[in-house]
Specification:
Largest sheet: 5 strands, antiparallel
Number of strands: 14
Distance between the termini: 51 Å
Number of domains: 3
Structural class: alpha+beta
Low-confidence stretches: none
Radius of gyration: 19 Å
Mean pLDDT: 94
């Protein structure tokens, strides 16, 4: 790796000021699990890294409102989400998804904000958070803004974040009467990159269906949701699976062909819906 400057601000506001909206060679670093691999391979050569490890402790906390809405700081480690009482109580699908997300060593270091900002289409959490209608709080030089997780992800390793913006918090609304499930299919070990990920959040009268890993970014499948409708029998589940297979724009990669993933989507969506419906 070529030499770079490492800065360690003591506040988030200071960290934002140290970023440069016009220079992509200046970047923030949280856990660094993905960024360090890019640097070691030579794919990314930073001029300056701004460490977030010394900023305020509130960005490392998980809290819940009285209605079950979760507030997860961007510097919370993935392992902390996996073992959080509040997450298990109000959004257990997140805790379950963590058990096969990469390895224990990665989860002990990687942060939620960095995980999302990395924008690898094979990541497990983005489709789950989109299905849960989660939102982000983002801080930049121009102030603070909020947007849905779905609006963050633009494509392969691309987000809508400015170079001088940082994710500070993820807000997960209360599930209410809905149940959420995430299933993934891997070609090798359980914690390998998935060939397909399917997240569903199902209520008595509605459903949110999101596919990930097999697409360029997590994608909500409106036609599959409409095909399911309010019916909850086996015929409706098969109908939704078939609609999803027709609707999704799937891509071929080392994990499988688009045709193979289409069959996976048909089967795994039916399984996810059946599990969510108990």
């Amino acid at each position: 790796m070529r030499p770079f400057e490492l800065l360690e601000p003591r506040s988030l506001d200071e960290a934002v000021r140290l970023l440069d909206r016009d220079d992509p060679a200046v970047r923030a670093i949280g856990g660094g699990t993905a960024l360090m691999l890019l640097m070691k391979s030579g794919l990314y050569r930073p001029r300056r890294l701004v460490s977030l490890r010394g900023v305020e402790a509130r960005y490392r906390t998980i809290t819940a409102d009285h209605d079950g809405t979760l507030h997860i700081g961007a510097l919370v480690r993935l392992a902390e989400i996996e073992h959080s009482y509040e997450v298990a109580r109000h959004a257990p699908v997140l805790a379950r998804a963590m058990r096969t997300l990469s390895s224990v060593r990665i989860r002990n270091v990687a942060t939620l904000g960095g995980h999302l900002a990395h924008a690898d289409p094979h990541l497990d959490l983005p489709p789950v958070l989109v299905a849960l209608d989660a939102r982000l709080v983002i801080r930049g030089r121009d102030g603070e803004r909020s947007l849905p997780v779905a609006a963050l992800l633009r494509g392969y390793f691309e987000t809508t974040l400015g170079n001088d913006e940082l994710i500070t918090e993820v807000i997960v609304p209360s599930l209410g009467g809905r149940r959420a499930v995430y299933l993934k299919c891997t070609a090798r070990a359980a914690d390998d990159w998935p060939a397909l990920g399917v997240a569903v959040a199902v209520g008595p009268n509605d459903a949110r269906i999101v596919v990930g890993a097999a697409t360029e970014r997590p994608t909500r499948l409106a036609a599959a949701e409409a095909a399911l409708g309010t019916a909850r029998d086996d015929t409706a589940l098969r109908r939704a699976g078939d609609a999803a297979a027709r609707e999704a724009k799937l891509v071929s990669d080392q994990h499988g062909s688009a045709a193979y993933k289409r069959e996976l989507l048909r089967v795994y969506l039916r399984r996810a819906l059946a599990e969510a419906l108990g």
